[in-house]
Amino acid sequence: MERILAVPRRTRRVRRQGKRREKDSWIQEAERKLGRRFRNRALLRAALTHPSAGGEGRTFERLEFLGDAILSHLVGLHLYKSCPDLSPGGLTRLRANMVNRAMLARAAKHLGLPTMLRLGKSEEPGGRQRPTLLAAAFEAVVAALFLDRGLGSVTKFLEQHLLPWSSPDPSLDPKSELQAIVQAALKIPPRYRLLQHWGPPHARRFEVEVEVRGQRLARGKGGSRREAERVAARRTLASLRINHNILGSSSG
Q1: Which residues are catalytic?
Q2: Which pTM value belongs to this model?
Q3: How many CB atoms lie within 10 A of CB 224?
């Protein structure tokens, strides 16, 4: 019989160290993309390891559950403060619009989460673009950040990576919608300026302009000043759908 040579202890140790460094480099890269350093990297590892990859599936799913609750709480608090004139029904619809599957998946892509995830063969390659999976991963990351750094850190994270880019809801008042988005991104409300009005009293027309920190975003016309403001807000929201960086250029 051939003699089976035992692997030297030092070789086994070197292999373990190599695997550990590989794990650490993956997490470090994820931290860099997220812009957050974790005290407990095991939390981030669990949030980015899908059950299909053979990780602790129960931990991932528990983080997803907690993240969903945290998102609902923080987005609701944000809307309560930034939209004082919006009705409870309007607040509920806007919150649902901001934390739905499509919006969370979009935020996950913006973050680069698809490249960070560890997936099993059953989820490759399409899983990295599947909205349900990406939304769950975003919720899991939110929960991991909460457990590691607290609610304040999660609030800053959402202000940077979710709230400013939320899609408009056409069923809501456009001025309230725009105010929520601008308030989240820049901490100030948009300003409406009357440019001109004309016509007889029974058929008066108004033109207004909406601006943020001196940057002119859109104009609107209407039979009342309020109607003109709504048109300007609606046009600004339409522009935000196309170019999310419009508000970014106002943050200087």
Answers
A1: 68, 139
A2: 0.65
A3: 12
